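Hi R.,

Here's the chain you asked about this morning:
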Amino acid sequence: MTQQGTIGIERMDGPAAAQAEDAFRLIYAEAFAEPPYDETADDVAAAFRRFRSQTRKATFRGALARTEDGEPVGMAYGYPLGPNTRWWDQLTEPVPDDMRREDGNRTFGLMELAVRGPWRGQGIARRLHETLLDGIEAERVLLNVHPDSEAAAAYRTWGYRKVGEAQPWEGADLHDVMLLDLR
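And here is the predicted structure, written out as tokens:
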């Protein structure tokens, strides 16, 4: 474990996150290169083509953790799911219609949350999660996580429950689809 003094966390809207894309990309590339994700440079490039589109959403929220000297150590981002989201269509088994109903406000989709290796185990992921969700009006949070990742266990301790499995992109391992009720 590396302690680099105080870690500050800044919440960002889409334009601010777009300005900080290099920091988000650094964290993402480092964290998701590790097993069980084993993402390549091509995977990172694809993720950040999506990131640019996502940051243009009016409802986008991001959170970026940095050391006192500005080194990026963790990030999280997402946005509310619209009525036409395809997220629920990726599940291997259908869920009840009431669960999959979206209206643009009901569910916050947590797209990514990651902390670089040397800063893990210090509560930074939890602080990023809390900062990102602070003040949202959604009823619940939805995410996909690789079941073999350390993050899957953390999400369970934070109150998330598994509601299904999905293959989030072609060729991906099955991921747990997890839901956190906020109300």
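One quick note: The beta strands are 7-12, 61-67, 72-80, 107-115, 140-145, 161-166, 175-181.

Cheers,
M.
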